[in-house]
Amino acid sequence: MKIYTKTGDKGQTGLIGGRTDKDDIRVEAYGTIDEVNSFIGKAVTELDPAKFTDILEDLETIQHELFDCGGDLANVSNRRVYKMTDEAIDAMEKRIDVLVEEGSVLERFILPGGTPAAATLHIARTITRRAERLTVTLTKTQEDVPTVVQRYLNRLSDYLFAVARVANVRENVSDVEYVRSAKVFKNVGSEKKEKE
Known about the structure:
This protein is mostly helical. The protein contains six helices and four strands, in the order ββαααβααβα. It has helices at residues 25-46, 53-74, 86-102, 116-141, 147-169, 190-195, and strands at 12-15, 18-21, 110-111, 176-177. Strand 1 (12-15) and strand 2 (18-21) form a beta hairpin.
Protein backbone atom coordinates (compact mmCIF):
# COMPACT_ATOMS: atom_id res chain seq x y z
CA MET A 1 0.00 0.00 0.00
CA LYS A 2 1.30 3.44 -0.93
CA ILE A 3 0.98 6.12 1.72
CA TYR A 4 1.15 8.99 -0.74
CA THR A 5 -2.01 9.89 -2.63
CA LYS A 6 -0.92 13.03 -4.50
CA THR A 7 -4.36 14.51 -3.80
CA GLY A 8 -2.76 17.29 -1.75
CA ASP A 9 -0.25 18.37 -4.35
CA LYS A 10 -2.28 21.45 -5.24
CA GLY A 11 -2.47 22.70 -1.66
CA GLN A 12 -5.74 21.18 -0.52
CA THR A 13 -6.52 18.45 2.00
CA GLY A 14 -9.45 16.23 2.81
CA LEU A 15 -11.85 16.84 5.66
CA ILE A 16 -14.65 14.62 6.89
CA GLY A 17 -17.27 15.67 4.38
CA GLY A 18 -15.28 18.03 2.19
CA ARG A 19 -11.95 19.57 1.20
CA THR A 20 -10.19 22.80 2.07
CA ASP A 21 -6.89 24.62 1.65
CA LYS A 22 -4.04 23.25 3.73
CA ASP A 23 -3.50 26.64 5.38
CA ASP A 24 -7.15 26.98 6.40
CA ILE A 25 -7.55 27.86 10.10
CA ARG A 26 -9.42 24.58 10.63
CA VAL A 27 -6.41 22.61 9.37
CA GLU A 28 -4.06 24.78 11.45
CA ALA A 29 -6.11 23.99 14.55
CA TYR A 30 -6.30 20.23 14.20
CA GLY A 31 -2.75 20.07 12.84
CA THR A 32 -1.53 21.79 16.00
CA ILE A 33 -3.46 19.26 18.07
CA ASP A 34 -1.49 16.60 16.20
CA GLU A 35 1.73 18.37 17.26
CA VAL A 36 0.61 18.20 20.89
CA ASN A 37 -0.08 14.49 20.49
CA SER A 38 3.39 13.89 19.07
CA PHE A 39 5.12 15.61 21.98
CA ILE A 40 3.01 13.67 24.46
CA GLY A 41 4.18 10.53 22.67
CA LYS A 42 7.75 11.69 23.15
CA ALA A 43 7.13 12.30 26.85
CA VAL A 44 5.78 8.76 27.18
CA THR A 45 9.14 7.40 26.00
CA GLU A 46 10.91 9.48 28.67
CA LEU A 47 8.87 8.38 31.69
CA ASP A 48 9.96 5.39 33.79
CA PRO A 49 7.03 2.93 33.82
CA ALA A 50 7.94 1.88 37.36
CA LYS A 51 7.41 5.41 38.68
CA PHE A 52 4.76 6.79 36.33
CA THR A 53 2.21 4.04 35.71
CA ASP A 54 -0.73 6.32 36.51
CA ILE A 55 0.57 9.15 34.34
CA LEU A 56 1.34 6.84 31.43
CA GLU A 57 -2.26 5.63 31.60
CA ASP A 58 -3.43 9.26 31.61
CA LEU A 59 -1.29 10.13 28.63
CA GLU A 60 -2.48 7.20 26.55
CA THR A 61 -6.09 8.22 27.22
CA ILE A 62 -5.24 11.81 26.31
CA GLN A 63 -3.62 10.74 23.03
CA HIS A 64 -6.86 9.02 22.03
CA GLU A 65 -8.88 12.05 23.12
CA LEU A 66 -6.66 14.34 21.04
CA PHE A 67 -7.38 12.21 17.99
CA ASP A 68 -11.07 12.65 18.81
CA CYS A 69 -10.59 16.43 19.07
CA GLY A 70 -8.81 16.57 15.72
CA GLY A 71 -11.47 14.44 14.09
CA ASP A 72 -14.23 16.62 15.49
CA LEU A 73 -12.58 19.79 14.15
CA ALA A 74 -12.09 18.12 10.74
CA ASN A 75 -15.75 17.11 10.54
CA VAL A 76 -17.73 19.35 8.17
CA SER A 77 -20.18 16.71 7.01
CA ASN A 78 -23.93 17.28 7.05
CA ARG A 79 -24.32 14.53 9.63
CA ARG A 80 -21.95 15.46 12.40
CA VAL A 81 -21.52 13.12 15.33
CA TYR A 82 -18.83 14.45 17.62
CA LYS A 83 -16.71 12.18 19.80
CA MET A 84 -15.51 14.60 22.48
CA THR A 85 -17.70 15.05 25.55
CA ASP A 86 -17.63 17.00 28.78
CA GLU A 87 -17.06 13.73 30.65
CA ALA A 88 -13.46 13.72 29.43
CA ILE A 89 -12.99 17.22 30.86
CA ASP A 90 -14.53 16.19 34.19
CA ALA A 91 -12.16 13.21 34.44
CA MET A 92 -9.17 15.39 33.63
CA GLU A 93 -10.11 17.92 36.32
CA LYS A 94 -10.11 15.14 38.91
CA ARG A 95 -6.63 14.07 37.82
CA ILE A 96 -5.39 17.66 37.92
CA ASP A 97 -6.58 17.98 41.52
CA VAL A 98 -4.67 14.82 42.49
CA LEU A 99 -1.49 15.90 40.70
CA VAL A 100 -1.50 19.40 42.17
CA GLU A 101 -1.57 17.87 45.65
CA GLU A 102 1.50 15.79 44.81
CA GLY A 103 3.46 18.73 43.45
CA SER A 104 5.68 20.95 45.53
CA VAL A 105 4.41 24.27 46.86
CA LEU A 106 4.02 26.73 43.99
CA GLU A 107 4.42 30.44 44.69
CA ARG A 108 6.16 31.88 41.62
CA PHE A 109 6.20 31.25 37.91
CA ILE A 110 8.58 28.46 36.98
CA LEU A 111 10.88 27.96 34.03
CA PRO A 112 10.01 25.02 31.76
CA GLY A 113 12.51 22.23 32.28
CA GLY A 114 13.84 19.77 34.81
CA THR A 115 13.86 16.17 33.66
CA PRO A 116 13.66 15.39 29.93
CA ALA A 117 10.06 14.22 30.40
CA ALA A 118 9.08 17.38 32.26
CA ALA A 119 10.65 19.55 29.58
CA THR A 120 8.76 17.65 26.87
CA LEU A 121 5.51 17.97 28.78
CA HIS A 122 6.05 21.73 29.03
CA ILE A 123 6.54 21.84 25.25
CA ALA A 124 3.28 19.93 24.85
CA ARG A 125 1.64 22.43 27.21
CA THR A 126 2.69 25.47 25.20
CA ILE A 127 1.63 23.88 21.92
CA THR A 128 -1.71 23.04 23.55
CA ARG A 129 -2.13 26.74 24.29
CA ARG A 130 -1.48 27.50 20.62
CA ALA A 131 -4.00 24.85 19.56
CA GLU A 132 -6.52 26.44 21.92
CA ARG A 133 -5.91 29.91 20.45
CA LEU A 134 -6.37 28.58 16.93
CA THR A 135 -9.56 26.80 17.97
CA VAL A 136 -10.89 30.05 19.46
CA THR A 137 -10.20 31.77 16.15
CA LEU A 138 -11.93 28.93 14.31
CA THR A 139 -15.04 29.21 16.48
CA LYS A 140 -15.23 32.92 15.66
CA THR A 141 -15.24 32.28 11.92
CA GLN A 142 -17.22 29.02 11.70
CA GLU A 143 -20.53 28.07 13.27
CA ASP A 144 -20.00 24.32 13.05
CA VAL A 145 -17.22 23.94 15.61
CA PRO A 146 -17.76 21.82 18.74
CA THR A 147 -16.92 24.13 21.64
CA VAL A 148 -16.09 21.16 23.87
CA VAL A 149 -12.77 20.89 22.02
CA GLN A 150 -11.82 24.40 23.09
CA ARG A 151 -12.69 23.63 26.71
CA TYR A 152 -10.80 20.35 26.59
CA LEU A 153 -7.65 22.05 25.30
CA ASN A 154 -7.89 24.68 28.00
CA ARG A 155 -8.02 22.01 30.68
CA LEU A 156 -5.32 19.92 29.00
CA SER A 157 -2.79 22.74 29.29
CA ASP A 158 -3.49 22.84 33.04
CA TYR A 159 -3.05 19.07 33.26
CA LEU A 160 0.25 19.20 31.38
CA PHE A 161 1.56 21.91 33.70
CA ALA A 162 0.62 19.86 36.76
CA VAL A 163 2.01 16.61 35.37
CA ALA A 164 5.28 18.22 34.29
CA ARG A 165 5.83 19.33 37.88
CA VAL A 166 5.06 15.83 39.18
CA ALA A 167 7.48 14.38 36.64
CA ASN A 168 10.17 16.43 38.39
CA VAL A 169 8.97 15.66 41.91
CA ARG A 170 9.06 11.89 41.41
CA GLU A 171 12.60 12.14 40.09
CA ASN A 172 13.67 14.46 42.96
CA VAL A 173 14.38 17.34 40.58
CA SER A 174 13.40 20.83 41.70
CA ASP A 175 11.52 23.27 39.52
CA VAL A 176 13.48 26.41 38.71
CA GLU A 177 11.57 29.49 39.77
CA TYR A 178 11.45 32.55 37.57
CA VAL A 179 13.56 34.76 39.82
CA ARG A 180 12.02 38.05 38.71
CA SER A 181 8.53 36.85 39.59
CA ALA A 182 6.63 38.09 42.59
CA LYS A 183 4.76 35.52 44.65
CA VAL A 184 1.79 35.19 42.33
CA PHE A 185 0.28 31.87 43.42
CA LYS A 186 -1.52 31.52 46.71
CA ASN A 187 -1.94 28.21 48.54
CA VAL A 188 -1.22 25.98 45.51
CA GLY A 189 -0.02 22.85 47.22
CA SER A 190 0.63 24.74 50.46
CA GLU A 191 -2.34 23.39 52.39
CA LYS A 192 -1.01 19.86 52.05
CA LYS A 193 2.49 20.93 53.08
CA GLU A 194 1.20 22.78 56.14
CA LYS A 195 -0.60 19.66 57.35
CA GLU A 196 2.52 17.48 57.08
